[in-house]
Specification:
about 0% strand
Length: about 200
Amino acid sequence: MTATSLAALAGGLFALGGVLIAWRFTPAHPDLATALDGLDPEHSLTPPVAPIELDDAVPDRVGRWLYRHLPLPEPPAADLALLGMPASRFHGQKLLYALFGMVFPLLPGTLVMLVGVRVPWVFAGVASVLTAIALSFLPDYNVRSDATRAREEFTRALGAYIDLVALERLSGAGPRQAMESAAQVGDSWPFRRLAE
């Protein structure tokens, strides 16, 4: 392979990375049948995230280490509580994404330099810092979008729950009994939260 073809390959890999990042942020076009099923109160999406559990996943361990050794900014507590995600996992993901962003731009630059094309290290350094900063905000975006979807699902389930409570009250049940019975009807995560 010639130096030109290797440089073109490195540029293509870098462009592919940019396309994949842009593709991640474009909104998806949902299937109509799935979207209509999601509007039915009987059907529910899966719970956004499992309840809070401190396991030994890498982001959890990294986040706990960060909490022990560094002062960290406040995470989006309401969104994390809704999703059942501990703040340590959130901060661990932010650091891991930032580290990936630091390393990713260096790979094409190193490949190009191995071919013999001189690229100033300043460009690679600036690209690494900018990519690290950009990718460190990806967990914020993910938590915000997941929490928005969870709130929409909870709103639909709450409307169904209120209708069920009204039906129980019309059938002669007391207020507390009506609320408890209505919460036991559904098995989706919003109904489980309401039952709690």
